[in-house]
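Key idea: predict the complex, not the pieces.
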Amino acid sequence: MASSLGRDVPAERTAAVANDLVEARDGAATLRVFLLQLDDHRAPWAQRVVDGVLDRLSSAMSALDDVSDAAAGRRSPAAGGSGSGGAARPQQSVSSSGNTRKRSFVSRSRSQRPSDKKITATLEDGHVWRKYGQKEIQNSSYPRSYYRCTHRSDQGCNAKRQVQVCEADPSKFVVTYYGDHTCRDPSTIPLVVPAAGAAPDCANNLINFGTSGTNNNAAASTTGASSSQYLAMGGSAADQLSTSWCASDDVFSSSAGSFMQVDELIGAVVGSAGVTSTATVGSSALDRGGHGGMGMAGGGGGTASFPPSPNGLGSFVVGSYDDDLFPMDP
DNA sequence: CTGATTTGACCCCT
DNA sequence: AGGGGTCAAATCAG
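Result:
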């Protein structure tokens, strides 16, 4: 079909560019969070500037998407998730155990391109995930786990991710993200924007990259209370290991509210295109798996698996703030 | 009781 | 035909 557009741009290159854009966006989002710590006068301004950057990045990414879609001769929009092959073809079959299973093929966005891929030591990324499958993969000695955003049902958030233990370094995970979060659940925004007049020192509760939490975010394990409600930020900040795939380690110097200078931060974000996260933030994920992470919640429980959707705390939720909070200046 | 995970089965895509 | 992504019943924890 389309032939002219994508032909000039090698797929690999567009993928690389896309990846850079994703990382830049992440960095900008991170930066945004920090700029919010500024005083009331500068915060809105900084907010707008960063929003502008995010907007540009987003549009660049979508433009790139269009190009590569055209290049790949992609057919389904995959945006809403519906469409693609199967169409509406409800089927019914009987499993070996005698159960009748009806299946409706609504969204089989199979050839969806990853929006991001990271190698990380922690599975937390600030979103609440729900595991919906696990599978042994051909060329891998470790199973692959499939997660989707918890808010898929209530908000139609199509974000997904696949998690697999890194072959080269089993202490790390290869996390592949598909789709973007469209959910706007406040509970996924631990970074509470200080209400007007709120004491700024609550910053410590907003982001805490402190190392005190080296081990397990076991608390983050969903199995506890309703995972979507997990928002322990208020309590002991010391227990919160807010690691993030944004390679925060490279950017922030942690500990008790000591934040980087903004310009330093910008330099870090821009300079290091961000964010290749090999965030070796403790081996929390593994630790967690050790002490009861495995099959802690589920049924049968046999094969080794990943910790059940570790909701992350750290969190930089791109575009998660209500715009109303940041009115435009005249 | 509610909600999350496990796990085998199903089915699309390559 | 087989691999891989998803579904959904079964199971379990809080």
